[in-house]
Amino acid sequence: MWTTTLDNGLRVWVNPRPGHASVTSSIVVRAGARYEPRDQSGVAHLTEHLVFTGTAERSEDEIVRFARERGGYRNGHTLPERVYFHTQLGPEWTDDAISWLADVVFSPTLDGAKLDKERNVVFQEKGGRELSLLARVRDPLSTQRLIDGIRGAYFPGSSISMDPAGHAASLVDLTIEDVQAFHARHYRAANSALVVVGDVEPDAVLESAERWLGGLPAGGRVPTPPPPLAPDWPGSRAMIRAPRLSDSCSFVLGARVMGRDDPELWATDLLAEYLMDQAWDDLRIERGLVYKLVSRNWFHSNIGLFQLETEGACASAEEIGAALDALVDRVVAGEVDAARLEVVKRMYIGQWRIRMEPNLGRVEWLSRWALPEGNALAHADGPRRIAEITPSDLTAIAAKWLSRERRTLWEHRPLVSRSRVALIVVGAALLLILLLGRAMWRR
Residues 195, 250: one domain? Predict the structure, then answer.
């Protein structure tokens, strides 16, 4: 890795990978959904779409065709804390890519005439404009409903729990002035970074960065919002009951934990993998009570959420819940299988390296750390950090963050399950047959 900072505060990170057939160039901006006003959900995502619709130098058609005509790809993504734009092109196009990114990201016209078109595209991306109505029927039936509910409970009053794609009711009301104000407030050199990965020379990238990005005004750095207030309910167990066309229950063992900038991050992430590995052997292989297990940690800059998710038959809910609690309690008590931990570490490092093989995967990873106020480069070195973790480290993390007082086992039970629906349908059919029979008998 090679890093520097331009005079205007924009960071430049370059990861040369000689021999790769392509170069991925990305500009990342601290402008995700967490920075939205709560009454403007979706403005970050809509802004990401509108920057592609034209600049003073390039028409929308020229922007769209830039990567295609050079045999590559381009895209943008809105996440909870950041937005990033990238191109994937041959090494010979790197200077052109940085020029294109600089113009598109920092100098869009944000034409109001394009607002409704892009708003409609956002709705289509979310499943259609009618989603707001359909979601009221679909969301309660899904595990995602449980996940969204948990995030809202752990981060009360914060937009960090909101869908980065935007909520339908808010998207309808957003104006071009909202988009322009959001862009002016967040799309600044000192609030952004350029990340380039592939077959490049760092000096050449720096020259391009100075040429196309060095003249941007610094604009100031947007501060990270403070951590949301802690929830006012104690840990233990919680249940959500909602209609769900299934006879299975969802379970999430969750706890509010540290943020991405905390040095305990890696041990916490490894703890989730260790618990998932143990739970898989116990609940899936030995007892056959569940059919999937997922560890899903959400690490934001100064706050995080630990989650271990599974699904199983509601008839075994007590057994599943007790098993998950027991797994965590053993780690808290210092019972960590050192041999299993070494296997889990190899699995974690190996899978991380596989994800880092494509240049885009590496750009996505580095974009988490490259922004101002992000961690030093050394903190992004996941494999080295993971390899150093010991059983006592896992116990310390579990005792600090996953004690029974801090964690909650969430359970999503179907209020109207598939079997109940079937019984209702059969009962209604029998009643109809009975009524028809009586009517015919009277005749």
Answer: no
